[in-house]
TrEMBL record:
Keywords: Membrane, Transmembrane, Transmembrane helix
Superkingdom of origin organism: Bacteria
Residue stretches spanning the membrane: 12-30, 50-68, 73-92, 98-125
Protein name: Uncharacterized protein
Organism: Streptomyces poonensis
């Protein structure tokens, strides 16, 4: 297995770029929806719908794939969780209960774990290469 040394500057630039892309994606998918839906029985849901979160995740797969396929795995695994954590903190910090930090912590840990797993899968598939042509 070929190991390349960690290149700090490209990894840092990748992490910063992915954090910026992630912040923009959060703003596009989740930033505009700030109200909770009150149902007839008095329960509330929201402020986000499932399709918004799914859209955010699917949008972030493209830059993650780009970074990992170019072997900037550390930058990818750092950048997206940092962007999501900063966005969640900025979006939820006006919560009067003070419990927003629990949610921000969950976003941080969950996005770090998910980004690491998806990055490992992308890297493993990339190392396997395209399937060989069948001999005819």
């Amino acid at each position: 297995m070929e190991r390349r040394p960690l290149r700090p500057v490209p990894e840092l630039l990748t992490a910063l770029a992915l954090a910026g892309v992630t912040l923009a994606a959060w703003a596009a998918w989740l930033g505009w929806d700030q109200h909770r839906d009150v149902h007839s029985d008095g329960t509330t849901t929201g402020p986000y719908e499932a399709w918004q979160v799914i859209g955010l995740v699917l949008t972030l797969l493209a830059p993650l794939y780009w970074a990992v396929s170019r072997r900037y795995v550390a930058g990818a695994v750092a950048g997206i969780p940092v962007g999501l954590t900063v966005a969640a903190y900025a979006d939820w910090s006006d919560d009067s209960s003070g419990l927003f930090m629990v949610g921000v912590g969950m976003v941080m840990v969950g996005s770090l774990a998910a980004t690491a797993v998806v990055s490992a899968v992308i890297a493993a598939v990339g190392r396997a290469g395209p399937p060989a042509a069948a001999a005819g």
